[in-house]
Amino acid sequence: xxxxxxxxxxxxxxxxxxxxxxxxxxxxxxxxxxxxxxxxxxxxxxxxxxxxxxxxxxxxxxxxxxxxxxxxxxxxxxxxxxxxxxxxxxxxxxxxxxxxxxxxxxxxxxxxxxxxxxxxxxxxxxxxxxxxxxxxxxxxxxxxxxxxxxxxxxxxxxxxxxxxxxxxxxx
Length: 171
Prior knowledge:
Layout: E1 2-3, E2 10-14, H1 18-30, H2 41-53, H3 57-64, E3 70-73, H4 84-88, E4 92-97, E5 101-106, H5 130-137, H6 142-151
Antiparallel strand pairs: 1-2, 2-3, 4-5
């Protein structure tokens, strides 16, 4: 990964073999980067680092991908639903739940017969399975479960101030 312009912006760039590295160097040179020896990983890393520091990750993706450079911005989990590449690849599936509305669900990262496995039902509501897990699986008694609930260690709603972790961008 290389640090980019911006406070906490990074991009991951991949080179698997000498042919890919040579293509990367040629693509980088098209963007005005100085020449580098594709066989010298340190020189290539330095070239990439300089180029990345001058640009935002989304700009790098738009500039490098058409030139044969495999790259992907490093995304915070809560921003994944806005990533156009993941959306185009069907990584995000959208579900509806009465208490949340429409929200993104992250699919399996693999394909089965060329397709992502469908997500057919929403996840359990927060705390829905607490009794089963604590009583049936862990053998906790009602008094122990009640104490965990009083202590705030388990419950059926987020703690005050807790962030949900996503911001749906589709309704």
